[in-house]
Design goal:
single chain, alpha+beta, 24% helix
């Protein structure tokens, strides 16, 4: 019985002990991770900006009020879909991007975008 009492008191005292706060270390700001898709790299660009970034398109298709520009590298095919802003005024801008391998396989958008030579 005495052992149980000693054990209970020890546990009670341990529970009441003050805890020390963890030591705060200075964390240096890190750069945000690179996007895994075209947002921030292609979305919002105009046709002129696309040509500056990827070169002349291999294919241009106008359909209704949209415009598709296709760019090809040795690794992939990038389709950029451009639409005018809501009022129909101003330059067409990329609102959607699709990427694939030349054999129609899946490929990560950023891998595809990175495969084009930088101007």
């Amino acid at each position: 019985m005495r052992r149980i009492l000693v054990l209970a008191v020890t546990l009670l005292l341990a529970a009441c002990a003050t805890q020390t706060a963890p030591v705060q270390t200075e964390q240096r700001p890190t750069s945000p991770p690179a996007p895994a898709n075209a947002r921030g790299y292609v979305i919002g660009l105009t046709a002129e900006q696309l040509v500056q970034r990827f070169g002349n398109p291999a294919l241009q298709i106008r359909e209704g009020n949209s415009w598709k520009l296709q760019f090809r590298s040795g690794l992939c095919v990038l389709d950029a879909y451009l639409y005018p802003n809501g009022s129909g005024q101003g330059p067409y801008r990329v609102t959607y991007v699709d990427t694939r391998t030349p054999s129609l396989g899946a490929i990560d958008q950023m891998s595809c975008i990175s495969s084009f030579p930088t101007p």
